[in-house]
Amino acid sequence: MAFIKMEAQAYGLTESKLFAEGIDSEQILFKIPNYQRPYVWRKENWEALFGDIIDNDSGYFVGAIICAHNDSALTDDYTVYEVVDRQQRLTTLSLFLAAIHEALNARKAGTDRLSQIKRSLLIETSNGKYQARLFPQNVGNVQDYFRILITAGVVTKDELGCKLIGDKPDRRRLITKAYEYFKKSIAEYANGDNGEYKDDPAQQVKRIIGILKKLNSARLVVITADSHASANTLFEVLNNRGAPLTITDLIKNRLFAALKSDAAANYKTRRNEWDVLIWNKVISLDGKEVSGVEQERFFRQSYNACRTTWEPKEKFPEGKRANLFKCYEEMIKLDSTRVFEQIKECAAIYPQIQGREETSQPLTNAYRDLA
Q: Residue 57: phi, psi to the nearest 5?
């Protein structure tokens, strides 16, 4: 898969093969920051991507990703790019490749194809071990992603040189379900439209290699910024004018970028608290993400319940849908840790305002006045 070379002010758009040689002949590790949402793509997303690759000609454009250089993680073996936007697509493409590897390996295809996929998904380091070229954003997904690469025969546990709890990926996780979906879809495609190649491994391999060639030729734009601030600015501009994103994505991105640069902020603790106290109580309901309208309502009411505690008051007008993100930006500039704590406090009582829990919290009246 190749990057499209383009010119852009303040943002370097570069060209090379996705995963394989990296960018401008560098070895690139794509790291998904901890403040990003977990892997959430589902069957309809996987079906759409698989269909796009199968049904379109070679060179199909599959989208764009926005990255920021992480100079603090620079090594002699590779350069780290933190993925600010489109991490779901990038993760899914790598799972697609892993499933192709397992399908070819099971049919005893030539080692050249398997080695190519291995180079695409892994970086060989100077100590003789391998590092996954894509690094998901939380411990559970990292562990299961590594287990998937092992299950697919891409790498052994010893070659990865990392500690894994258990040998099999957790089948309940979406990242594992995505991999299983691509395994099944590839097998069905390999058998032919009417199952005519069900007992013909040679034809199956030929058809699977056809998928691999299309996937390798697909084109993806990568936008690299020299800082998180630049990457987040571009992220906000593109997504506010293009594909719809929730207010949660925008606020979370800006907030955790600020927290990460604040030495006093306990970043890992904040990340865990977001998942437990904010995501689980407000953003998701019964394991599914609530609508963007409901998320916006929470953040708007949280802001309006707390804005009178901020100075200067003229900087914090009544929060409405049109100005809500700007209002949060102003607070985050002043004190990102305080913003996080206020969101956390509001998240603790929000289910109670909705009638799902009883409450005696002091913010309850302020919230009800805004309802």
A: -70, 170
| pLDDT in the model for residue 10 | 29
Give yes or no for a contact between 73 and 260, defined as CB atoms under 8 angstroms apart. Answer: no
CA 31, distance to chain mean position in Å, is 9
- Per-residue buried b or exposed e for 339-370, using 16+ beta carbons within 10 Å of the residue's own CB: bbebbbbbbbbbebbeeeeeeeeebeebbeeb
User: Which pair of structure tokens corresponds to residue 24?
Assistant: 């401008």
Strand-pair partners of 69: 81
Rg (CA), the chain: 23
Decide if 107 contacts 205 (C-beta within 8 A).
yes
Distance separating alpha carbons of residues 268 and 284, to the nearest angstrom:
21
Is 37:295 a contact under the CB 8 Å cutoff? no
Instruction: Report the C-alpha dihedral over residues 163, 168, 171, 175, rounded to 10 degrees.
Output: 50
Q: Taking a C-beta distance cutoff of 8 angstroms, is the pair 335, 284 a contact? A: no
**Extended beta strands in 125-256, E state:** 130-132, 134-135, 219-225
Q: Which residues of the chain have pLDDT under 50?
A: 2-17, 20-25, 241-243, 360, 367
CA angle 235/11/328 to nearest 5° reads: 30
Helical H segments across the chain, by residue range: 43-55, 87-106, 111-121, 139-151, 157-160, 174-190, 201-217, 228-241, 247-261, 267-273, 292-306, 324-334, 336-353, 364-370
Residue 262, pLDDT score: 65
Measure the CA–CA gap between 312 and 305, rounded to whole angstroms: 16
Domains of the chain by residue range? 2-223, 246-370
Q: Is the backbone peptide bond immediately before 312 cis, with ω within 30 degrees of 0?
A: yes
Q: Could you give the CA distance from residue 358 to residue 11 in angstroms, rounded to a whole number? A: 50
pTM, rounded to two decimals: 0.64
Look at residue 137 in the predicted model and tell me its pLDDT: 72
Instruction: Give me the pLDDT at residue 261, please.
Output: 66
